[in-house]
Amino acid sequence: MSTNGDLVEVRLFGPLRTLVGRKSVTLPYAGLKIDDALARFVDDHTDSVRSMLFDSQGRRRRSIILLLNDHTVEDEAQRLRAGDVISVLLPLAGG
Amino acid sequence: MSQFTEAQIERYSRHILLQEVGGAGQRKLLDSRVLIVGAGGLGSPVGLYLAAAGVGTIGLVDSDFVDLSNLQRQILHATADVGRPKCLSGRDTMVALNPDVRVVPHHFRLTADNVLDVIADYDIVVDGADNFPTRYLANDACVIAGKPLSHAGILRFEGHVTTIVPGCGPCYRCLYPEPPPPGLVPSCQEAGILGAVAGIIGSIQAAEVLKLLLGIGDPLVGRLLVFDGLDMTFRTISMPRRPNCPVCGDRPTIVAPIDYEEFCRLRGEATSPSEVSS
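Above: the input entities. Below: the structure tokens describing the complete assembly.
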């Protein structure tokens, strides 16, 4: 059970938004490291979502841009705080 | 100003009026050479605006042919062009708009073997391709050759744009060191694209190219512009250069173009790339 004090927003872009069917979800991820939050996020979604974000060895893919509060993540060990916004961008092939 | 004809002074008068352009800037545009990779959704507005602006030489690379399904957004081509090579149809449209402009059609795919020779003739490259192998190829070749590159990608209602100036900021590989996994990032052919989104994003690329040619303003170097057409919002994200980038990093390991289809397949690109910007 979550309270407003532990909510983190995950903003989704591009094909990930299409797959999840929402542009943003708010989840009780405060206190988690960003990779653990992403792992928790994919646990609740389809395998396609998982394979967009993690490879078969469970490593975060290098084909995504991950932002914390609109900035690239400097310290991966940092724990999320309530109100933080994670953005997940994938490259767009279309032209 | 004596080097302009009267018709040119009239044609470019709204540029020449701009203090940041003036006669000298317009002359610079007429003497400039820009290569557009992909004569599709992005390449169309880029080509039209660069031709209208009087960019003297414009190369157009596309190995594909105009299809009826392209016309909803690829405004370089008309109904009568269906079945024609896109680079020829695009050339005719651009030259009809502005006969001052020389358009060089390149009716082939960019490959690791030809890319450095093709881009050597141009000052700036515009990436309007529709597939990851061509995007990585254009990026690596431009970094190796030290050429500025305007990059953009579109899908559905979204668009991304950035400007890559080797040595001055991150490259495409700094943003995305590896291509995405097989079949999970769809093309416009699979997921659709609102035609006007291609127009918005391509027009931003054209403005960036003109700014770079003129040496004015602040280009999107080190910044990724993310457009959401449903919300009608733009956000700008600062992106750092990666010192360990294999192409533009401190100790580059990619010093010549590689086999990109193999690279993207190994890294998980599923669909076979077509040069078409669809």
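Note for the figure: Chain B touches chain A through 47 residues (CB under 8 Å).
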